[in-house]
Design goal:
The chain has helices spanning 10-15, 19-32, 35-47, 54-65, 91-101, 107-117, 132-146, 152-159, 177-196. With 197 residues, it is an all-alpha fold. It has one domain (10-69, 84-196). Helix 6 (107-117) runs antiparallel to helix 7 (132-146). It is globular and about 55 Å long. 33% of the residues are buried.
């Protein structure tokens, strides 16, 4: 912390350029890229809602989910807080958010897989490694951007979990901020459902 870099960072320059300038550069680089660089460029393309990298993102997400569990955060991040702390998510969640930015219907298969693997309980929202908050929010974010009726069943599957339903306060004060965050997720589910019809 406290370090300052004053030079130009090429990927930042590209991702903050105009749509018309950035996409051809990114698509050309993506067409030649391999492995991690290809996924990184697919994420950059997603910033511009380009579908060019969708299949690369899906393949990488599916690789992370292949064990049949939602991966936890494994990276060591200094100064993390309880979720939501977007600097400290499981690696695959960054990819799920990127996929949502593309507004591509092919995302539905990934979101459905996440919904199937999701089995949250209240203590999960206090775990700084589990990532439950982020998985739910990433699916809702993408579904809200996409706005397709086909996402409704996925969102309903997520909303069916007891710790993501009826998050209301019966009195005027709720000192537990984790419950507030669960309520934020129920609002995110509701917004996405409204957008999807």
């Amino acid at each position: 912390m406290g370090e300052v870099f004053r030079g130009k960072i090429p990927i930042v320059e590209i991702c903050t350029a105009s749509h018309h300038s950035a996409i051809p550069i990114l698509e050309e680089a993506f067409s030649r890229a391999k492995s991690k660089r290809r996924v990184f460029l697919a994420q950059a393309l997603a910033i511009f809602e380009s579908p060019a990298g969708v299949m690369a993102l899906i393949a990488e997400i599916e690789r992370h989910l292949a064990n049949g569990i939602l991966p936890q955060r494994t990276s060591r991040v200094l100064y993390t807080q309880l979720p939501p702390d977007q600097g400290a998510m499981p690696d695959v969640v960054y990819l799920i958010y990127s996929l949502g930015m593309t507004r591509d219907e092919r995302s539905l298969t990934v979101w459905d897989k996440v919904a199937e693997l999701l089995s949250p309980v209240e203590k999960d929202f206090r775990d700084p490694y589990k990532g439950t908050f982020y998985y739910v929010d990433a699916v809702c974010y993408g579904a809200e951007l996409l706005g397709y009726r086909k996402a409704i069943s996925i969102l309903n599957k997520i909303h069916a979990h007891a710790c993501l339903r009826n998050q209301t306060v019966q009195n005027s004060l709720q000192p537990d901020f984790i419950l507030e965050r669960q309520a934020m997720l129920e609002l995110a589910i509701g917004r996405a459902l409204a957008r999807c019809g």
